[in-house]
Amino acid sequence: MATMKDVARLAGVSTSTVSHVINNDRFVSDAIRMRVEDAVKTLNYAPSALARSLKISQTHTIGMLITASSNPFYSEVVHNVERSCFERGYSLVLCNTEGDEQRMNRNLETLLQKRVDGLLLLCTETYLPSLDIMRRYPTIPTVMMDWSPFEGSSDLIQDNSLLGGNIATQHLIDKGYQRIACITGSLDKTPARLRLEGYRSAMARAGLPVLPGYVFVGNFEFSGGFSAMQSLLALETPPQAVFCGNDAMAFGACQALWQAGLAVPKDMALVGYDNIELARYMTPPLTTVHQPKHELAELAVNVLIQRITKPDMQQQLLQTTPTLVVRGSC
């Protein structure tokens, strides 16, 4: 494989001149530029991205650690993150934790060893990244996406899940439903706890009781919504409406209703959370809380790049604002 020295020798110039031509960072006469470009073509020379990154101490690469899930929310967030990185001249390296702590920490160290300029973390695990690993790379900027609490100085971008749970439940109350249940995600996860708190707050404000068995802890997956709805239907007094902590569980709940011979919204009203792309294609289309995934990705990438260029910047704790998308499931 040809090197920069080979190009310089063939063109009859110095290696620094070759570098200036390739990077276009200093004036070089047209005649010399042509000789260098001809030598590059003749030798089929490809500049080394690794060598350049070592020289300028930047790779223009961002690492992202994410938990694989059947929930389309995560793939939609990754899509928006990758697009935001591309628009800013950065490449994205994605690693999946598979929900395993050992794999999470191994992938974390792999990303850091590859000299990524910064890290985005969007994981659903209850455990945190190894502090030993993080301490070995103290200068790597990190942004947590909707994952807290975290013992560290990382920037944090969160959805206002408390508000989201509140407006979802309030919509059902405004529609005249009184027996309203909630299928929540695992309560060791901050968004699940806050969405449940928003549900309880709206119910209390309206003077409506949360009946026994009306709060079912799911798992933010399709299967969790399916089994939760089966349990709710088995109650002596089933609910009239259900707030599901995310759209995936709302889809599972809808399937359980269909198998029971019940229809949405005639026999049971549903409200989801996230506004994934599939929500508009459910039958009937799902009323849901829109979590601005594009804004979440833009904020996370922008804050991370700011942190890369300004390491001493004050810690950022930012929230996106959810809104209600009314469709046909209520």
UniProtKB/TrEMBL annotation:
Residues 2-56 form the HTH lacI-type domain. Keywords: DNA-binding, Repressor, Transcription, Transcription regulation. It comes from Tenebrionibacter intestinalis. It comes from the Bacteria. This is Ribose operon repressor. SMART domains: HTH_LACI. One of its GO terms (molecular function) is transcription cis-regulatory region binding. PANTHER family: LACI-RELATED TRANSCRIPTIONAL REPRESSOR, RIBOSE OPERON REPRESSOR. CDD domains: HTH_LacI (cd01392), PBP1_PurR (cd06275).
